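Need C-alpha cells for this chain, all 316 residues.
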Amino acid sequence: MFPLLDTPTSHTSAAATWVDSVTATQTANTSRSRRSLPQLAQLAKTSNTYLTSTVLHLRDGLTSDQRLAAQHRAENIHLVTQRLRDATRVEEWRAAARELDILEGNDAWKMDNESSEFDAPLIQARLDLLNEARMSGDVRRMLYLVRTSLSRGLGGMGNVELYQHSHLGTKDLIESYIDATIETIQRLARTEDKALPPGLDIKDLMEQVVLARQAFGRSALLLSGGATLGMYHIGVLKALFEEKLLPRIISGASAGSIVCSVLCTRTDEEIPEVLRGFPHGNLAVFEEHDREEGALEHVARLLTDGAWIDIKHLTQ
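Here are the C-alpha cells for all 316 residues:
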C-alpha cells in the first residue's frame, strides 16, 4: 500500500503551529527585554553610587554614614552660628555659644589639662587647698589662702591663648579654680562673729579681704575710637550692665571717650535710660553741624584755649 500523502489541511495546521511558536518566542524575548531595562538602570545607578562613594572615601577617608553625619553636623554649626550672631541678650548668646562649643568639639579641649599654655598641676594644687579649707570651715586657712594666693596670672591662667580656643569660657580646671575662689570669699563674707576663731573679729576679717582685693587689682574697660563704630560700645556696656559685670573703671579714646564720659557721669538708676537713648544721639560733638573748621581756627584755639578742638558741644 502506498503511504497517505499530506493533505492541504495538515500543511495548514503545521504552518499555523510554527507561526504560533515563533510569535510566542518573540513575545517572550520582548518581555525579557522589557524586564531587563529597569534592572539595567538600577545596576547603573548602583555602580555610579559605589564609584562615587569610593572616590569620596579615597579623598576624605570617611564612610558614607560618617560623611552624612559630618554634613549634618556642619549644617547644625551653621544654624547655631547664626543664632549666636543674632542674639540680642547675653543668655541667648551664652546658650548658643555653649551649644557651638559642643558641636565643634571644644568641650574636649576644655577637659584636657595636658597643655603648655598653663601650669595645670599648680592650679590644681591651689584648687585642692581652697576646697579643703572651705569644706573644713577653717576661717584662718581660707583667709590666708585668699590673702596670699589670689592672683590673676596664677599658673599662666591669664594667657590670652587660653581664651581663643572656644566660644565660651576656657579650661574647666581654670573655671573651677575661679569658682572655688569666689565661693571661698563669699564664705568669709557670710561668716558670723561667733564663728570666728579666737583673736579674729569681723573688722580684722574685712580688712584682710579688702587688702586681698587691692592686691588683686580691679578690672578696667577701655573703649577704642572709630567714629560711628563707637556705637558698638553702647551694646557692650548694655550687656555688661545687665549682667552686673560693668567695671568701676572705664576709659576710652575718641568716640569711646565720649561714650564712657556720658556713662560715667550717670548713676546706676539713670544708666538704663541713657543706654536706650544714646544710639539715637549724635557723636559729632567736636564741631558745628554742617560746618567744618579750618586749620587756622584750630591753631587759634590751641594758642588761646590750649585745645585743638572745641569741647563746648561735648559739655552740653
